[in-house]
Amino acid sequence: PKLVQADTQVSAEKAASEYERLTKQEGAKIVIGPMEVKGTEAVATKSVEIRVPFISFTKKAGIPGLSSVLFRLGVTADNQVEELINYAVDVLHFSRLSMVYPDNDAGHEYAVAFQDYLSQRGVELVKMANYQANQPQRVQQAIVDLGDDVGDALFVADSLENARPIILALRTKGIKATLLGPALWNDST
To answer: Measured between alpha carbons, how far is 114 from 127 in angstroms, rounded to an integer?
Structure first.
């Protein structure tokens, strides 16, 4: 066996053509990648015809359903929210949670999962607010929208870098709830 690399150049079309090249010309029996959603969707479409398994790392919900030969290594928003809420409730014994999330597709995906799983667990949803990353006035408005009571914990559904202005605004306001974050917070930088 040999390992062959390909560069998708963060292009969905290139990802699909490289998948085809790797499988037809190089004889690949399995393809690892692509990393991003659009490339994964394009390869999934191509894989329906070619039928060579591939592994994706994208976290977007519904991805594995695109192809019977697509396998995912990575957690979804649903997985992360479920584990986070289970930890908050079962280990920390919290019963009242709030959430602040970016006003984008990923943020909305986390928000839906958060509301759904809180409901399943019978946990009180205290407040939810959203913001636009890199827009200080929207961040400040989200903090105002949250109010003074965010319950036992606040889930900030964004990267640690994007969460920093939220965290600073919460500290300035004097909110001392436990902060929870997605897997994106597991960042050594």
So the answer is: 12
